[in-house]
Amino acid sequence: MVLALSFAAFSPVASLCTRTNSCSLRSTPHSQEASLLRQAAEVADLSAGLTAPHPNFGCVIARGTDVVGHGFLYAQGTKCAELQAVEIARELSRGATAYLNLEPGDCYGDLTPVSSLVQAGISRVVVGIRHPLHHLRGKAIQALRSQGVQVDVVGEDLLGKAFEHQLQEALKSCLVVNAPLLYWAAYCVPFSVLKFAMTLDGKIAASSGHASWVSSKVSRHRVFELRGRSDAIIVGGNTVRRDDPQLTARHGGGHVPARIVLSRTLDFPEERKLWNVFDAYTIVATQRGACKDMQKKLASKGVEVVEFDFLNPKDVMEYCYDRGYLSLLWECGGSLSAPAIKSGVIHKLFAFVAPKIIGGENAPSPVGELGNVEMTQAIDLIDVSYEQIGPDILVSGYIKPIPDLSPVIPSVDETSALDPTISPYETNIIFFYKTWDEYGVFSNFSPHPVQMPDENGDYIMWPSVEHYYQAHKFIPADAPLAGEFVQQIKIAKSPEEAARLGRKLQRQHPEMVREDWDTVKIDVMYSALKCKFSTYSNLKSLLCSTAGCILVEASPHDLFWGGGREGEGLNYLGRLLMKLRSEIMENTSTPV
């Protein structure tokens, strides 16, 4: 199925529940259903650019055609969309219908999204698409139905010609808003967008290499928005040498994407803007053994160097997948974009076409040699859209269609029914990393507040283990500035933001970090984990259920808390959880 859609401008969601008259749709019941589901998809997209890409959940609660509650997942480790929506709707939730663009996940480990809807008295749930991840697929739908809630899944329960057009468009909205997650689940690589700006005669620069600027300021602002929607921005070595880009988002949001440079030779000047990692992280991917001297210089500046046996786009994408990246933006030249397209890792294209001509036989074009010799071999884009941006025209389309996984990925129960000998999960080693993983609640980013004593013995509630951990880099706060840092971290909107802020402040103000931090940070993490698992009984039960299994925090880049890319990491988070599991089971008098 070929599916793509560009969202129209959407007014702030807060107005949904205050402008009741505008929420009343004077149309058929079929179009009303579709409109409310599209609103859920639009709500789900509201954190774009503010936080790192994550599964986008939106929930709209309606009584008839009046919206009475809404919510969206701001970032991993924050309050789920369903709970936010019922808190707004309050008593109006009883007997109402909830519209969800995506089947609920379970980053709490106790099906909080489901229980929120059930306890609020929601009588019916309309789901756009089932969750594409194996361990979550169908789980929430089954749980809701077991509690007597009517659940209708678009394309499964809502069928018929009368529904076909409106609901098909609503379904597209649900797929587009989670395109990164769907590609990630289907192809085991991040969703990759190739972006370039070119003149009418197809040039991205003059023959001299000068390229400032091909497109207008308005178009460049749109590029900042695209960057804000990405985990990382990818360029080649030529771009770094020739343009010396900064590649920051500058979009006004809080999320700062990483910068990834692909270079086999590392033939770089010692000073480039990308080597400044105070505001944005930089990764350089290169060939194994390449220019060890430059590798050392980059590492001394805080740049992460990752070696590959043979540097190519496909292997780099597999690495980014293992790193947990959902969405990437390629801003490279033709010599890198061509092999990326040929290797099949580019999924969508954004071309900003400026109304100007530069000419030049040797002027570079956006895509290098693909090996095509006939026009019949040209790659046709899918679901192409056109938008005027200032004087420029933005042409966008998909090279690979958004995967509709609904008829493809069976649930665990379905798999077992087909072949009882298949074990869907590895039983000896359990990996966890992102909060949406099967065992994601083990993460220090999970949305579980912990109440911990301060240096005076007074108990303080911290939004997550990560908030507590990052703040304690500056505790005891002997200096007023350190105290300010602690408060800034404590009120961070998500664990992700707390981590980003804590690391940034640590780099910028090393003198404010407690002198014994390297010695005590394991104890700090363990005390917070111990509080978390003793507070939430469902987490304790889940941890004990892994008895006999090795727990590995699967971060490929954190070699202290995680297991590393090839198992070279120390995996201290996994070790602490196994230690805690052993203590809990030793102190439990009855079987768990």
UniProtKB/TrEMBL annotation:
Coiled-coil parts of chain: none
Keywords: Glycosidase, Hydrolase, Multifunctional enzyme, NADP, Oxidoreductase, Signal
Any single biological process term in GO: carbohydrate derivative metabolic process
CDD domains xref list: NADAR (cd15457)
Superkingdom of the organism of origin: Eukaryota
Transmembrane region(s): none
Pfam families in UniProt: NADAR (PF08719), RibD_C (PF01872)
This enzyme's EC code(s): 1.1.1.193
Signal peptide extent: 1-15
Reactions catalysed according to its record: 2,5-diamino-6-hydroxy-4-(5-phosphoribosylamino)-pyrimidine + H2O = 2,5,6-triamino-4-hydroxypyrimidine + D-ribose 5-phosphate; 5-amino-6-(5-phospho-D-ribosylamino)uracil + H2O = 5,6-diaminouracil + D-ribose 5-phosphate
SUPFAM superfamilies: Cytidine deaminase-like, Dihydrofolate reductase-like, YbiA-like
NCBIfam families: eubact_ribD, ribD_Cterm, ribofla_fusion
Protein's name according to its UniProt entry: 5-amino-6-(5-phosphoribosylamino)uracil reductase
Organism: Dioscorea cayennensis subsp. rotundata (White Guinea yam)
Phylogenetic classification of the source organism: Eukaryota, Viridiplantae, Streptophyta, Embryophyta, Tracheophyta
Gene: LOC120254669
